[in-house]
Amino acid sequence: MTDQSIQATPISDAAAPTPIEGTTVYLESPITIKGSKTSLLVLRKPVLADVIELSYPYLAIMRDDETCIEFRAKVVARYISRLASIPMSAVLCMSIPDLQACQAVIQGFFGRTEVESIVAQKEGVAQLEGAQGG
To answer: How many domains does the chain have?
Structure first.
């Protein structure tokens, strides 16, 4: 009888599953995804393809001396579905506080510097027009 030992074959780093990188959002009210309740979502960072497909989750409205940022709930919901890889039906069951928590994370992905740059650009144009007497 021969001794047949089984040796584990090491998995290369390339073949090993990678953990989801992103930001974890803990939900106050659990949601059901494919029959299982969950109290957390991991939102991955968006890439250009996400922005092209979904648009920006906010709209910068500039009027006179005022800039307003309007968050678009439908677009935010689509980002949650896409970035967390969950069905829209689960997103639609989220509580408002959980939606707002996810919205804050999504807003952070786009950075305040982008919104601030829009405001700074508008202020710069206004200063330039003022300096030129326009």
So the answer is: 1
